[in-house]
């Protein structure tokens, strides 16, 4: 897969924020009318130490949407291109993700991202930025809150509440806080690109196979740490037999 949009990545934090404010106008908060056939999860791990000496490793794992059978794993590594700056995670992670996406044989219809989407101060979190660059439908599936206020979602799994940005006038719903498993901490779900919040919630709940995290991002995290497609497929077959 090749990028649909190209822009410089070697920017200062000030330049990166200015670019986010420009790119936010491209975000489409409208989902496709049909269900995806293929869904991917992405994750990036960064080695410890000074960022100029660190290595970023990305994993993209493609699944059959209906069965969640893992079909393909693509990984890539590069020197970490950007320091960790809150709100600018995409400039640290998208470049190495693009290298991994370039290796894919299967083109996903939907991508779940371990990070924020629209729930971002400039409405351009990692999921939104990646979606714009690749012109893919994306969803932000964050484990922690970055911005916004919310009530606690109801138990059991499937309960959710609005994530609201009260710092703007009028206040704006920027995502949802979703209980994906009984009696565990919720996830912070937001539309990335070519997506809306209600549809994002449905997709995430579909992809949570008994775990707090959606299977695509959970498995991408494992593959960024070295797990292989063969290992994923063996896990999937064992689980399929149990169900």
Would you kindly provide a written description of the structure presented here, covering whatever features stand out?
Helix 2 runs parallel beside helix 3. This protein has one domain: archaeoglobus fulgidus dsm 4304 superfamily (archaeoglobus fulgidus dsm 4304 fold), CATH 3.30.2170.10. The protein is globular, with a radius of gyration of 17 Å. It has 243 residues and is of the alpha+beta class. It has six helices and eight strands.
List the topology elements:
Elements: H1 13-23, E1 38-46, E2 55-64, E3 70-79, H2 89-101, E4 110-113, H3 126-134, E5 137-142, E6 160-165, E7 172-178, E8 187-193, H4 197-207, H5 215-224, H6 229-242
Parallel strand pairs: 1-4, 4-5
Antiparallel strand pairs: 1-2, 2-3, 5-8, 6-7, 7-8
Helix pairs in contact: 2-3
């Amino acid at each position: 897969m090749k990028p649909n949009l190209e822009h410089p990545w070697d920017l200062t934090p000030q330049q990166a924020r200015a670019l986010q404010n420009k790119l936010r106008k491209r975000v489409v908060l409208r989902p496709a009318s049909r269900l995806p056939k293929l869904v991917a999860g992405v994750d990036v791990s960064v080695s410890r130490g000074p960022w100029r000496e660190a290595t970023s490793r990305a994993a993209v794992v493609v699944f059959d949407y209906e069965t969640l059978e893992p079909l393909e794993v693509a990984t890539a590594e590069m020197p970490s291109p950007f320091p960790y700056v809150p709100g600018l995670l995409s400039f640290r992670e998208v470049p190495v993700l693009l290298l991994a996406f370039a290796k894919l044989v299967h083109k996903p219809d939907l991508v779940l991202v371990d990070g924020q989407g629209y729930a971002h101060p400039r409405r351009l979190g990692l999921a939104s930025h990646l979606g714009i660059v690749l012109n893919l439908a994306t969803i932000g599936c964050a484990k922690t809150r970055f911005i916004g206020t919310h009530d606690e979602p109801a138990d059991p799994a499937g309960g959710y509440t609005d994530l609201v940005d009260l710092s703007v006038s009028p206040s704006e719903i920027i995502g949802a806080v979703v209980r994906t498993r009984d009696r565990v901490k919720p996830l912070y779900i937001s539309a990335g690109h070519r997506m809306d919040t209600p549809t994002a919630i449905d997709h995430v709940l579909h992809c949570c196979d008994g775990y707090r995290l959606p299977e695509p991002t959970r498995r991408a995290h494992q593959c960024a740490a070295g797990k292989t497609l063969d290992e994923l497929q063996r896990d999937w077959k064992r689980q399929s037999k149990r169900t």
